[in-house]
Write a structure and sequence with these properties.
This protein folds into 3 domains: 76 residues, Gyrase A, domain 2; 262 residues, Rossmann fold; 173 residues, Isoleucyl-tRNA Synthetase, Domain 1, CATH 1.10.730.10. It contains 20 helices and 13 strands. A 5-stranded parallel beta sheet has the order 6-5-4-10-11. The chain has a 3-stranded antiparallel beta sheet with strand order 1-3-2. A 3-stranded antiparallel beta sheet has the order 7-8-9, covered by helices on one side. Helix 4 crosses helix 17, helix 6 packs across helix 7 and helix 17 runs parallel beside helix 20.
């Protein structure tokens, strides 16, 4: 009803923006319009304006009466009609109006020297859900990736393979095979520090286009990317275009050298090309030996993406340790004259820890994404086999994977993206806590009720407080989606769905549905159906596949 009242006020006042408030007391109505907004425009007393509007505005369906109270115009809602409108809008949703806005989202941006880890899982969960939320408000989303496939970190795994790999081919998932050599390099370099210099020399040979060096880099990178794609597919990460650092760093160098000629950049005492930013200090853009760094290629990729897509918004989902990097990147783009950089946004996220502590990839202590997914799958399978002993092996495997991913994604998304937290595998799988499986269980419970009945004609006769609470919560779904999308905060959907699940389970335990008298039964079935649909959409927005049967 709030939207309808706002539209009504816009019609009668010609205001472009209307702000409604909630009255301090129910006796004063459900919504109130402070007429101070109009007083300045019409140069009249706000109380006089409220009285005039009360006479002029013809109430629409759902509005019982409109009354002035001093400078306020109060709207009283017919609760039965309001609840009918809320539920019918969910049961028979209108087709979404498509926006012409293009949004490009970069995620997860791996390095090709090691497999994806828990941090990448958080990145992908955010990327998938933010994509879904943007599409939910009508935007066209283009998911892209940046593959960091060159530089000294990549050179370390390549050098270890060159020295100790003996042309061996992967005998395991290929990104894990590559990662083993990164760990081996760290071990060998601890014994022989000169290997660090050798890795740097390998980068120089790479940038000098040494054929043998290019070949081994290309081979190992292909293995790593093959492994990444397998994990992407498993978690539902779809990429429209992947940008390889190796294909763009030279163009980045050209931009830096051109910026030097234009005197936007300067050379420092060591011979490196730098930019001096009052706000952020001195930033190296190209090393004295001519080799590039991350920001070198990021400059060109940022420009190329705009040429590729002409998007309205570019969102980088990258860890909070890179906040400075992106502030500098966007500032440099503006200095170079690319005004569209104002529409570039860095969405940072915090660290994820495990009970064992922080991950260290170079020491081989990394908790890789695949191992965690497998561990969660096995834990979910144990729980399913305990609860549902007659399931076929194929069905048990399917449900285990969906529940495992529900647990991981929901746990990763229920926190504000900037927050650091510890991921507890077994806790995340609880069917009773604030978890993905709990939402799935509630969705399956609602689906089970609906399977037990034939087609029904929805009724809207509600007398119980819990029923009114559920409908009131359902009424806030669209505004929650809008807020979560516009503020890039998927955790709002996670919290919303948890609150709805708690309310529905309270209703389920208190009131019969299928055995109630006809009008009560049809009303409660409408409530169950609306709740089921909203839980389904909520799960899908979070990148989770809903399960009608647990």
């Amino acid at each position: 009803m709030q939207t309808q009242i706002i539209n009504l006020l816009k019609k009668y006042t010609k205001l472009k923006e209307v702000n409604l408030e909630t009255p301090p007391s129910p006796e004063l109505g459900d919504y109130t319009f402070p007429c101070f907004q109009l007083a300045k425009i019409e140069k009249k007393n706000p109380a006089e304006i409220a009285a005039t509007l009360a006479k002029q505005i013809k109430p629409i369906k759902g509005i019982e009466k409109i009354r002035p109270a001093g400078p306020y115009l109060n709207f009283f809602i017919n609760k039965n009609i309001q609840e009918e409108l809320i539920l019918s809008s969910i049961l028979k949703p209108k087709k979404l109006k498509k926006s012409r806005k293009k949004v490009v989202i970069e995620s997860p941006g791996p390095n090709t020297n090691k497999p994806l880890h828990l941090g990448h899982l958080r990145n992908m969960a955010l990327g998938i859900s933010i994509k879904n939320l943007q599409e939910a408000i009508g935007n066209k989303v283009i998911p892209v990736d940046i593959i960091n496939d060159r530089g000294v970190h990549i050179a370390k795994s390549v050098l270890a393979y060159k020295l100790y790999g003996r042309n061996k081919k992967p005998d395991k998932k290929p990104d894990h095979f590559v990662g083993d050599f990164y760990v081996l390099f760290a071990k060998k370099a601890a014994e022989d520090p000169q290997l660090e210099d050798e890795a740097q020399k390998l980068v120089q040979k790479y940038e000098a286009k040494d054929r043998a060096t290019l070949y081994i880099f290309k081979k190992m990178n292909a293995w790593a990317i093959q492994g990444f794609n397998q994990t992407y597919k498993r978690v539902g990460m779809k990429i429209q275009k992947a940008y390889l650092e190796s294909q763009h760093y030279e163009k980045g160098k050209e931009i830096v050298i051109n910026g030097l000629k234009r005197k936007i950049f300067v050379k420092n005492n060591e011979g490196s090309i730098v930019v001096n930013l009052e706000e952020f200090g001195e930033k190296v853009l190209l090393r004295a030996d001519g080799t590039s760094i991350y920001i070198t290629q990021d400059l060109y990729v940022a420009i190329k993406r705009h040429k590729d897509f002409h998007m309205h918004k570019m969102i980088y989902i990258v860890g909070s340790e890179q906040i400075y990097h992106f502030k500098v990147l966007f500032k440099i783009l503006e200095l170079l004259g690319y005004k569209y950089a104002r529409n570039y946004l860095h969405l940072p996220y915090g660290m994820v820890y495990l009970p064992e502590g922080k991950m260290k990839s170079r020491e081989g202590k990394i908790i890789d994404a695949d191992s965690l997914l497998d561990q969660m799958h096995n834990l979910a399978k144990k729980e399913i086999q305990k609860r549902y002993k007659n399931l076929s092996k194929k069905e048990a495997e399917k449900r285990s994977e969906i529940i495992a991913q529900s647990a991981i994604k929901f746990f990763l998304l229920k926190y504000d993206s900037l927050k650091d937290f510890t991921f507890f595998p077994e806790k995340s799988l609880s069917f009773d806590g604030d978890t993905g499986p709990y939402i799935q269980y509630t969705y399956a419970r609602a689906s089970s009720i609906l399977r037990k009945t034939r087609a029904f004609k929805p009724a809207y006769h509600f007398t119980e407080e819990t029923e009114h609470q559920i409908i009131n919560h359902l009424s806030r779904f669209q505004e929650t989606i809008k807020e979560a999308a516009e503020k890039y905060r998927p955790h709002l959907i996670a919290h919303y769905s948890l609150d709805l699940a708690h309310l529905f389970n309270e209703f389920y335990h208190k009131y019969p549905v299928l055995t109630a008298e006809k009008i009560i039964k049809e009303s409660r079935l409408a409530l169950v159906k609306a709740t089921q649909q909203v839980l389904k959409i909520s799960l899908e927005l979070l990148g989770i596949k809903p399960l009608e049967k647990m």
